[in-house]
């Protein structure tokens, strides 16, 4: 048997595959050109004129998240840990998406803010706003770089171009459509990307299942044993030895704090829902997105599990033998190399490229909105006319893309550093969620409490990460016996609790804001009519946000039980 | 489709674009599945002619998008000024 046991394996693409990939790029840039004709105000550019139907924003919502980290990372987790990876979807995403749709979206959309940091500013003033806007903008540049790096890796594997040429070419394509058509182009492309990704991964899953002998085949052959096929208690995934603590970690750390923090305050996601054409469509967007999100594990995690059974390099890696430079992250690529004939291989490559571009375009389009509205308009140049900010937005898009090429270069040289930075930015989300939820439902909470809560919550998370064994690699001190995902769960939990406590204590000693300023931002001070559309009670069940959310919740519980 | 005199977005509808691209992929894969299914190609997919089946599936999906967009066209509301772009 011949092993190509190094990380520079090539995908054996031929002319048809290239034709398929090239067609995809032509359509992507074409959408950018067509969307440009619709852009006439800054609201068009940054929020698609708030005019998109719910199924479009709902799919874009999910597609913006279906980037490199999701596809490569979750199939890698599937290969390494098995079915426990579904927690990232069924516990760590769906409940939070339903919550965002039902509880938080009415405030975001109804208050007329143009970004999540802007909501922060109107509720808590500029202190909390500046912390939020800056950390968000920097994080987006970093994550765009990671997506770009993975995108360039595929181009490099496929065409054999040097990495830096691949980087620049990939960046140029993303730039061309996001700068031309703004959020509309990004969203339309995300919807298209969603379907191309499914067209790529679904047949791959079918071939892989055929190869391994169906679900029974997986059961027989999965290593080290069948416990890989049950999702609870997930001790391998969390790195927490005690099953009880592991379950608590998954439910509270991942399911509550981390996932609610990510999905409800992350402007990359919320921006998609804000582009909807009505309050009820904005509420529906994350709820509609939750349905495909439930089933994505079947075309991402299952291929990962099978790859660890049928790809020789991964079998060796999992058995702890020398496997060259092969990493779990290569699971999907290796499976494509081994199983797909030319033609389908081209679709699969187009699907992966689509996924990484969707991720990067989402980061860039969220960045340019926050930069233009929240940083430039708020703190640098206040009273220019509207076309000025659209121009700033385009310039910010170009600058962000160039910076992303730089961060991608850093990612290629210091992959650990990037992981730690991502961990670090993850720590901003948990306290954000605490501050938002407290601020939306407790009118007395003061502006000082807003920013002190955020800062101390983040500090608590960073402290836990330093005390753990490996959150910051060798920079961690190992005082607490926590490692891997378990450490992130505890860090996020600490951030949440400290944020709530500090916010309550500081509020007791500072003056609350004038109630008239808080209308539309706090539940008890907002007229109920402004949180729903007038015709919402007459909507059929498939358009009613609470009913749809109820169906989603039941489905996700059923899935959890089936794959217990 | 324009019987009521209302403006539709026509080919700009994203559903036509999705249907067109997925449908085109379906045609390419189906043709490959029929005419290029050598034993060597089939062996990769462990005997399953994935090009053919995925191709047919994509054809159906592509046509479904086109039909949906034809039957339920997006109407441009009257109160919105048509934009000719900058």
TrEMBL record, chain A:
Record's keyword terms, sorted: Membrane, Transmembrane, Transmembrane helix
Coarse class of the protein's main subcellular location: membrane
Highest taxon of the lineage: Bacteria
Membrane topology: Multi-pass membrane protein
Coiled coil regions in record: none
GO MF entries: D-glucose:sodium symporter activity
A Pfam family: SSF
GO cellular component assignments: plasma membrane
Transmembrane feature ranges: 15-35, 55-76, 88-109, 130-155, 161-180, 192-210, 244-264, 285-311, 344-371, 392-414, 420-442, 449-467, 487-509
Gene3D superfamilies hit by this protein: Sodium/glucose cotransporter
Compartments in which it is found: Membrane
Sequence similarity: Belongs to the sodium:solute symporter (SSF) (TC 2.A.21) family.
Protein name: Sodium/solute symporter
Automatic annotation (TrEMBL), chain B:
Transmembrane residue ranges: 12-35, 50-69
Entry keywords, A to Z: Membrane, Transmembrane, Transmembrane helix
Designated name of the protein: Uncharacterized protein
Organism for this UniProt entry: Aeromicrobium ginsengisoli
């Amino acid at each position: 048997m011949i092993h190509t046991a190094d990380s520079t394996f090539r995908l054996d693409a031929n002319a048809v595959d290239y034709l398929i990939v090239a067609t995809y790029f032509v359509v992507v840039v074409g959408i950018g050109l067509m969307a440009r004709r619709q852009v006439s105000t800054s609201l068009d550019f940054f929020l698609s004129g708030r005019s998109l139907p719910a199924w479009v924003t709902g799919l874009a919502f999910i597609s913006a998240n279906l980037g490199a980290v999701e596809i490569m990372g979750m199939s890698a987790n599937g290969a390494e840990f098995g079915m426990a990876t579904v927690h990232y979807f069924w516990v760590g995403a769906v409940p939070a998406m339903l919550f965002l749709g039902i509880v938080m979206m009415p405030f975001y959309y109804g208050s007329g803010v143009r970004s999540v940091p802007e909501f922060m500013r109107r509720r808590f003033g500029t202190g909390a706003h500046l912390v939020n806007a800056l950390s968000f903008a920097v994080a987006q540049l970093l994550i765009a770089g990671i997506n770009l790096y993975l995108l360039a890796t595929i181009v490099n594997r496929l065409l054999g171009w040097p990495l830096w040429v691949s980087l620049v070419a990939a960046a140029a394509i993303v730039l061309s459509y996001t700068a031309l058509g703004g959020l509309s182009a990004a969203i339309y492309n995300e919807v298209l990307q969603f379907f191309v990704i499914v067209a790529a991964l679904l047949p791959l899953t079918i071939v892989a299942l055929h190869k391994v002998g169906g679900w029974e085949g997986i059961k027989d052959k999965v290593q080290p044993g069948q416990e890989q096929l049950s999702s609870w208690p997930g001790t391998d995934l969390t790195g927490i030895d005690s099953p009880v603590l592991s379950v608590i970690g998954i439910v509270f750390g991942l399911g509550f704090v981390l996932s609610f923090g990510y999905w409800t305050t992350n402007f990359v996601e919320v921006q998609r829902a804000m582009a909807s054409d009505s309050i009820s469509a904005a509420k529906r967007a994350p709820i509609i997105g939750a349905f495909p999100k439930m089933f994505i594990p079947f075309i991402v995690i299952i291929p990962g599990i099978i790859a660890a059974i049928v790809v020789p390099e991964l079998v060796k890696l999992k058995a702890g033998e020398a496997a060259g430079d092969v990493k779990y992250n290569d699971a999907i690529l290796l499976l494509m190399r081994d199983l797909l004939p030319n033609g389908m291989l081209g679709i699969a490559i187009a699907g992966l490229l689509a996924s990484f571009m969707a991720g990067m375009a989402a980061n860039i389009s969220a960045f340019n909105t926050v930069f233009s509205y929240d940083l430039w308009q708020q703190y640098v140049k206040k009273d220019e006319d509207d076309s000025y900010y659209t121009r700033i937005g385009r310039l910010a898009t170009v600058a962000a893309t160039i910076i992303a090429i730089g961060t991608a270069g850093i990612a290629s040289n210091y992959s650990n550093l990037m992981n730690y930075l991502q961990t670090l930015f993850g720590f901003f989300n948990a306290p954000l969620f605490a501050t938002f939820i407290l601020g939306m439902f407790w009118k007395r909470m003061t502006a000082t409490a807003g920013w002190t809560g955020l800062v101390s919550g983040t500090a608590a998370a960073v402290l836990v990460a330093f005390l753990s064994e490996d959150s910051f690699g060798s920079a961690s001190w190992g005082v607490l016996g926590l490692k891997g995902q378990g450490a992130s769960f505890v860090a996020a939990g600490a951030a949440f609790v400290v944020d709530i406590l500090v916010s309550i204590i500081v509020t007791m000693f500072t003056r609350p804001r004038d109630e008239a300023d808080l209308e539309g931002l706090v539940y008890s001070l907002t007229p109920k009519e402004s949180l729903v559309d007038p015709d919402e009670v007459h909507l059929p069940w498939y358009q009613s946000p609470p009913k749809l959310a109820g169906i989603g919740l039941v489905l996700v519980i059923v899935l959890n039980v089936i794959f217990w | 489709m324009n019987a009521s005199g209302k403006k539709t977005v026509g080919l700009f509808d994203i559903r036509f674009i999705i249907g067109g691209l997925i449908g085109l992929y379906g045609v390419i894969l189906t043709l490959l599945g029929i005419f290029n299914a050598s034993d060597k190609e089939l062996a990769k997919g462990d005997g399953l002619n994935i090009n053919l089946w995925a191709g047919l599936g994509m054809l159906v999906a592509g046509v479904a998008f086109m039909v949906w967009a034809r039957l339920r066209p997006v109407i441009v509301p009257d109160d919105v000024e048509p934009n000719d772009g900058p």
